[in-house]
Design brief:
Chain A is α+β, with helices and mostly antiparallel strands. Chain A has helices spanning 2-12, 17-30, 33-43, 54-65, 69-79, 82-89, 101-109, 117-129, 133-144, 153-164, 168-174, 183-189, 261-267, 292-299, 306-311, 334-346, 364-372, 453-465, 522-526; strands spanning 209-210, 226-232, 235-242, 245-250, 274-282, 314-324, 327-328, 353-355, 379-386, 400-404, 408-419, 428-437, 440-447, 467-471, 474-477, 482-487, 489-492, 500-503, 506-510. Classes of the chains: A alpha+beta, B alpha/beta.
Chain lengths: 534, 347
C-alpha cells in the first residue's frame, strides 16, 4: 500500500502532466503485475461493488472520533469528500506493517462484501487503527468507490505503453470492455507479442472537438475536405458482430445488454467480423427523430416493456465502419471507410439499422444555413469530418468537429447555493437560478459551471455574507446576482416546480449590468418551448 | 454581563468602559488584539494594544493615530473597567483581552493557538465568566501535528528540491506565518530570501527582539543570480505572478491550516501544502474552553454554529455571535490588505 499511496500522493500533489506521467511510469516499472493490474483498474476509473454502506461508515467514524453524528455531517459538508472526511476525523492510526495493494484489496477490501455488519465494523475500525493519514485516505477512497485522482485514462494508457514499449493505441484497445484485474490480464496488456481480439472488445471511440460558435468552421480550411452529418442527440454506441455474437457498447464503455432488443436483432444481420460506430436514436416509423427526453424514458428502465418498445422505438444510425471481415480498418481514410459502410448497408434491409445521411453542401455558408434548422429536426447541429483522416483514438484535434447551434439563453437570479465537491469542496459553486413569476422567483435550473476561479471566489464570498437561511448544506441568499444561463433544450416536466426542465444548463456570463428585476420571467422561458412538444 | 460586553455592528463593545475590541469600523477608542488587518482596522482615533505588537502595529497604521501600549498582564483601568492583555500565541504581540468589572470577568481571545511558537509568547489560560473564542478551524477534521513534524517535512522538501537543482518558494502570510516559517527553516541547507512584504514584517519582528535566521530581501538582488537551492519565503499573492519567474525552476508550497484539506491544496495549484496554522484546531479549542472554564462562551469567526452546538450539548452556555464563516480566500484578502501597495511595488 505504501507504493500505491506514494503514487496517489505524487499525482495529487502536482498539476503538471509530465510529472504525473513520470510518477505513473515509475510505479508501473516497480510494481509486481498483480498490483499493476489493480492500479490500472482503479486509475482507469473502474469501481468495485460497494461493500459497506456509507451511512454506516459515517456512524462508525463519529463513534471512533468521539463526536456526535451531526458534527460528522457538518464536517462532511465543509470538506465535500466523504473519504477525506472519514480519514481526517478519525484519530490517526498506528501504522503496523506494509502489505501490497493486491493483498490489501483481496484480503481486506473484497471480504467486506460477504461480512455481516458487526464484522464489517470491526474490520473497518481495524483498518483505521492501522493506517497513517494519507494511506487511510487512499483506502477510504477505494472503499467508498470514489477513487478519483487527477489522471485521465489516456494518461494511464500512455504510461503503461511507455513502460511496456508498445503503442498507446494498442494498450488503449486492450483496456476497452470488461476485464478482470489479474496478473495474467496485466501481462497480456503489456505483452508486445500477443495478437488476439476478444469477441466482445470494442474500439476506443473517436471524439469530436467543438467549433466555437462565434468563430465558425472557416479556420478548418477547405470545406471540400470535409463531409457534414447531423449531430443527433442520442446515445453514442458501437455495435459489434463477431463469432456469431452481438455486443452493443456505450461511449462510457458499458456493455448494454437487453436494453436495445431491436438493435440486437438488427446486429444479427451483419456479416461476422463487423464493427459499426453510430448513434442510438428514438424515431417515429416515418424516420423522424424524437427528442432525447423520449429516449431517456427507455434509459430509466431496467427492463424494456412491450408498451415502451412500441411508444419509443429506436434505430442504430451507423456513421462509421471500424472493422470489416475481422480486419481493423481504422487507419484507412474516412472516405474509404464511408464507401465501404455504404456498400455494406446497401445489402442490409432492417428497420432498426440505418445509414446516416451526408448533408450536401458546396461551401461553409451552405452548411451554415442547414445548421440553422437543426432544432426543427431535433438535431444539435452538424458534425464535420475530415475525409482524409483515419479513425483517431482519444482527443486528437482536427479530424472530427461538432458545430452546434447557438444555445438558448436566459437571464436568471441566483437564489440558492451549495458547496461543491472535490477541487471545489468548501467553496459555494453549485447554484440554483430562478425566474420571475409575478412577484415570486421560481427555481428553473441548477448550474455548476461557467464561472472562472476569480468569479467563483466572489460568488462564494457573496453567499457567505448574504445568507438568508440554511437548509442543511443549502443556503438561500438575498436575490442579487443575475447571470445569463445557456442551455441546449427545453421540455415540460412534472418533476420540476416550474413545470419545465432545461438540458445542460450552465452559466454563460455574469450580468453585472443587470439587477434582479431585469431578469427574465418564467413566461419568457415557456415561450421558447418547441410547439410540437406539449 | 451586557454592560461589560455586547455585540454591535461595529464589533465587540464594552459599554461601561466605552471602547471597542477589534472594531470593524473606525471608532474613537479601539482595543486591538493583534496586528492582522481584520482585527486592527485603520481610522480609529486611539488604539490600545499589547506592548510586543508595537512595531507591527506602527508598521501598518496611520502615523497620526494615538497609540498606547501595555505589557502583558499589566492592567489599566478605563472608566472603572480593569483591562489587561494576556498572550494569545497567534502572532507576535497577539493578546487576549481580559476585562473585569464588579467581579465579573470577560476574556476576548482574538485569534489564538495553543502550544509553543518561538516567534511569540505562548497562549495562557485566563479564568473567566465569559470567553469569546474564534472558530476558524472549529471542526474535528482539523487536527494539527506537532511543529517539529511540519518543520522536518519543510526542510526535507527544501533539501530534495535543492538536490534537484530547484529553488523553493514557500508561501505564508506576511505577518506571523512567514516569521514562524523562517524559524522552522534549517539555514544549513541553503540561503534564505524574502519577498518585500515578508521582509517588512520580519524587520518588525527583529526590532521586537525575536531571533530569526538571516534573510536577504529578493529586491536587493540585481542582475543575474543563481537561485538554485535557495528558499524564498513569499506571500501567497505572489503565486502565479511574473515576480516568481526570476527564480527559474521552482518548487512551490503553501503553509496554512487550510492545507489540511485536499480541495484547498489543489485549488492553490502549489506543489506542496504544509499544514501549519496559527489558529486553534478542534481539540485545542475544546481544551482552551476547558482551561478557562467560563460560564458562557461566545463563538465568532469561523464554524460558529458547529462549535456553539457542540458546547451546548456538552453543558456549556454558548452563543454564536457571528453568522459569517471564514473562508480560505478571505485570509488572502487579509493578506492583500495587509501588504496593500507593498506587495505590488516590491515585485
Amino acid at each position: 500500500m505504501l507504493r500505491f499511496t506514494q503514487l496517489y500522493n505524487s499525482i495529487d500533489s502536482t498539476t503538471k502532466t509530465n510529472e504525473k506521467l513520470e510518477a505513473l511510469e515509475s510505479y508501473f516499472a516497480a510494481a509486481p503485475p498483480e498490483d499493476a493490474a489493480w492500479a490500472t483498474y482503479f486509475l482507469a476509473g473502474n469501481k468495485l461493488k460497494r461493500s459497506v454502506s456509507t451511512k454506516l461508515l459515517r456512524v462508525w467514524a463519529a463513534k471512533e472520533a468521539g463526536i456526535p453524528e451531526w458534527l460528522l455531517e457538518e464536517s462532511y459538508h465543509a470538506i465535500g469528500d466523504l473519504a477525506e472526511t472519514l480519514s481526517l476525523v478519525v484519530p490517526p492510526g498506528q501504522f503496523v506493517d506494509d502489505i501490497s495493494l493486491t493483498q490489501w484489496i483481496e484480503d481486506q477490501l473484497l471480504p467486506l462484501l460477504a461480512m455481516d455488519v458487526p464484522a464489517q465494523q470491526e474490520a473497518i475500525t481495524t483498518i483505521w487503527k492501522q493506517s497513517p493519514a494519507r494511506m487511510r485516505l487512499v483506502m477510504m477512497k477505494l472503499i467508498t468507490g470514489a477513487f478519483r485522482v487527477g489522471v485521465s485514462k489516456r494518461l494511464v494508457t500512455r504510461a503503461i505503453a511507455a513502460q511496456a514499449g508498445i503503442s498507446a493505441d494498442v494498450v488503449s484497445h486492450r483496456l476497452m470492455g470488461n476485464w478482470r484485474p489479474t496478473p495474467a490480464f496485466y501481462q497480456r496488456l503489456v505483452d508486445p507479442n500477443v495478437q488476439d481480439t476478444i469477441a466482445s472488445q470494442p474500439y476506443p471511440f473517436c471524439l469530436a472537438h467543438p467549433i466555437e460558435i462565434e468563430q465558425g468552421p472557416q479556420t478548418l480550411g477547405n470545406c471540400g475536405d470535409y463531409v457534414a452529418e447531423w449531430k443527433w442527440d442520442g446515445i453514442r454506441g458501437q455495435v459489434i458482430r463477431r463469432s456469431e455474437q452481438s455486443f452493443i457498447w456505450s461511449r462510457s464503455e458499458a456493455l448494454m445488454e437487453d436494453r436495445w432488443p431491436e438493435i440486437e436483432s438488427a446486429a444479427e444481420v451483419l456479416p461476422d467480423g463487423t464493427v459499426l460506430d453510430g448513434e442510438i436514436l428514438a424515431t417515429r416509423s416515418s424516420g423522424e427523430v424524437l427528442p432525447f427526453a423520449q429516449l431517456q424514458r427507455r434509459l430509466n428502465r431496467k427492463t424494456v416493456g412491450k408498451k415502451l418498445l412500441e411508444e419509443v422505438p429506436v434505430v442504430f444510425q451507423a456513421f462509421d465502419l471500424l472493422e470489416q471481415n475481422g480486419e481493423d480498418i481504422r487507419a484507412k481514410p474516412f472516405s474509404v471507410r464511408r464507401s465501404r459502410l455504404e456498400s455494406l448497408m446497401a445489402n442490409i434491409e432492417h428497420p432498426h439499422l440505418k445509414l446516416t445521411q451526408l448533408i450536401k453542401g458546396e461551401s461553409w455558408g451552405e452548411w451554415e444555413t442547414m445548421r440553422e434548422c437543426s432544432r426543427e429536426r431535433n438535431a444539435e447541429g452538424l458534425m464535420l469530418k475530415c475525409k482524409h483522416a483515419s479513425y483517431d483514438v482519444g482527443r486528437v484535434r482536427g479530424t472530427w468537429w461538432k458545430w452546434k447551434v447557438a444555445p438558448f439563453s436566459i437571464d436568471a437570479v441566483l437564489i440558492y447555493a451549495q458547496k461543491g465537491h472535490g477541487k471545489r469542496a468548501s467553496l459555494y459553486t453549485d447554484y440554483t437560478f430562478a425566474l420571475w413569476e409575478g412577484n415570486a422567483l421560481v427555481p428553473v435550473a441548477k448550474a455548476y459551471s461557467g464561472l472562472n476561479n476569480e468569479e467563483i471566489k466572489q460568488v462564494d464570498r457573496f453567499v457567505r455574507q448574504n445568507t438568508k437561511e440554511s437548509f442543511g448544506p443549502v443556503r438561500s441568499v438575498t436575490p442579487t446576482l443575475v447571470m445569463e444561463i445557456a442551455f441546449e433544450g427545453l421540455q415540460r416536466s412534472t418533476r420540476h416546480k416550474s413545470g419545465i426542465a432545461t438540458r445542460f444548463p450552465r452559466i454563460a456570463r455574469w450580468r453585472h449590468d443587470k439587477k434582479p428585476s431585469d431578469a427574465n420571467t418564467l413566461q419568457d422561458l415557456l415561450a421558447l418551448l418547441p410547439e410540437k412538444v406539449s | 454581563m451586557d454592560d461589560l460586553l455586547q455585540t454591535t455592528d461595529r464589533g465587540l463593545y464594552c459599554q461601561v468602559g466605552d471602547f471597542y475590541i477589534d472594531p470593524q469600523q473606525p471608532v474613537d477608542r479601539a482595543v486591538v488584539t493583534h496586528a492582522h488587518t481584520d482585527h486592527a482596522r485603520r481610522g480609529c482615533r486611539r488604539y490600545l494594544a499589547a506592548k510586543p505588537s508595537e512595531h507591527l502595529l506602527r508598521m501598518r497604521m496611520n502615523h497620526d493615530a494615538e497609540f498606547e501600549f501595555l505589557a502583558y498582564t499589566d492592567s489599566v483601568t478605563i472608566n472603572g473597567v480593569d483591562l489587561s492583555f494576556h498572550p494569545a500565541g497567534h502572532i507576535l504581540g497577539s493578546a487576549q483581552v481580559r476585562l473585569e468589572h464588579r467581579g465579573r470577568v470577560a476574556v476576548i481571545s482574538g485569534d489564538y493557538k495553543l502550544g509553543d511558537d518561538p516567534t511569540c509568547e505562548s497562549w495562557q489560560p485566563v479564568k473567566c465568566d465569559l470567553f469569546v473564542t474564534e472558530s476558524t478551524f472549529g471542526l474535528p477534521v482539523y487536527r494539527w501535528q506537532p511543529d517539529q513534524v511540519i518543520a522536518d517535512s519543510i526542510n526535507a522538501w527544501w533539501r530534495e528540491s535543492r538536490d534537484a537543482g530547484k529553488c523553493c518558494v514557500l508561501y505564508g502570510y506576511a505577518v506571523g506565518k512567514s516569521q514562524r516559517l523562517l524559524s522552522c527553516l534549517d539555514p544549513s541547507i541553503g540561503p534564505i530570501y524574502t519577498h518585500g512584504a515578508v521582509e517588512k514584517g520580519t524587520e518588525a519582528y527583529r526590532k521586537t527582539g525575536v531571533s530569526l535566521p538571516d534573510t536577504t530581501y529578493v529586491g536587493s538582488i540585481t542582475g543575474k543570480h543563481d537561485w538554485k537551492g535557495a528558499m524564498v519565503v513569499a506571500v501567497p499573492g505572489a503565486h502565479g505572478t511574473p515576480w516568481i519567474r526570476r527564480f527559474g525552476r521552482v518548487s512551490t508550497a503553501m503553509a496554512s491550516g487550510w492545507m489540511a484539506v485536499r480541495g484547498a491544496r489543489r485549488r492553490r495549484s502549489v506543489d506542496r501544502g504544509f499544514v501549519l496554522s496559527d489558529h486553534v484546531d478542534w481539540e485545542s479549542l475544546l481544551s482552551a474552553v476547558q482551561a478557562c472554564d467560563p460560564e458562557t462562551v461566545w463563538v465568532t469567526h469561523g464554524y460558529c454554529a458547529a462549535v456553539t452546538r457542540y458546547l451546548q450539548e456538552n453543558g456549556r452556555d454558548a452563543r454564536a455571535i457571528d453568522s459569517r464563516t471564514r473562508s480560505e480566500g478571505e485570509e488572502d484578502e487579509i493578506l492583500l490588505n495587509e501588504t496593500d501597495a507593498s506587495i505590488y511595488t516590491t515585485l
